[in-house]
Amino acid sequence: MKQIWDGTRSLRAYRNALSTLKTDFPTNYLIAEIPQIVSQIHRPKILVRHDVSGSISRAWDMARVEHELGYRASYMIPGDSPGLDITDPDTVGLLQRIRGLGHEIGLYQSLPDTPPPRGKIVKQVEDAGARLARLLGFPIFSVSFSAPIPETPADSQFVGSKINATAPLMTRWILDDSWPAWELEPPQAADEDPARALLQVIVRPEIWKAGEP
């Protein structure tokens, strides 16, 4: 096992973790690209997903670190959150700048402890995605959830018209910053285990410290 991250939530530690991952995963992908690559996974692939709930400025800091290292990431933004006003011009401007670095802006959807039926979730996603697209001026292709949604087939990639970053297909192999540290098996393990062919790194910008280190 290789240690990727020691649990220190700083930009320096994040930069080091991405640099370490890049040695084993030289090419990374966006959530929006998964339907095109999922049937062509012949060697391990990586994607970085940010579930943003409050700090766009912290997200901007991380987006620049990723860009410097040649990473593209998917930033999932809530359509309705008490901690984030997505109608604020400064927020819109930062999200557009993040996208301008080659990153993706998607939708983050929080679910209650007892999720509603799948049909209601689909409508909520479509409505929130359309609203976010109107505010930002570009389409929204993907969504992530705070918890798995009910009635999701194991091979499903979509919720409505949006690619589901939280689908079982996408979460078989993950690194999550809610963990105390990250350790990783050699990516060659994916040659024998298809469940290890796609690694998703899940990051929440607001729990990381601003600045260096």
What CATH architecture do you see? Alpha-Beta Barrel
Number of domains: 1
Rg result:
16 Å
Structural class: alpha/beta
Count helical runs: 5
Largest sheet composition: 9 strands, mixed
- Contiguous uncertain segments of 5+ residues: none
Order of SSEs: EHEHEHEHEHEEEEEE
Estimate the global geometry from the Cα principal axes: globular
- Classify the beta-strand content into a percent band: 15-25%
Summarize the helices and strands and which ones pair or pack.
Blueprint: E1 2-5, H1 11-24, E2 28-29, H2 34-37, E3 45-51, H3 56-68, E4 73-78, H4 89-100, E5 104-109, H5 118-136, E6 142-145, E7 158-159, E8 162-164, E9 173-176, E10 182-184, E11 198-203
Parallel strand pairs: 2-3, 3-4, 3-11, 4-5, 5-6, 6-8, 9-11
Antiparallel strand pairs: 1-10, 7-8
Describe the structure.
The chain has 213 residues and is of the alpha/beta class. The protein has a single domain (2-204), classed as TIM Barrel (Alpha-Beta Barrel), CATH 3.20.20. The chain has 5 helices and 11 strands, in the order βαβαβαβαβαββββββ. The strands form 2 sheets. Strands 2, 3, 4, 5, 6, 7, 8, 9 and 11 form a 9-stranded mixed beta sheet that branches. A two-stranded antiparallel sheet has the order 1-10. Helix 3 packs parallel to helix 4 (89-100). It is globular.
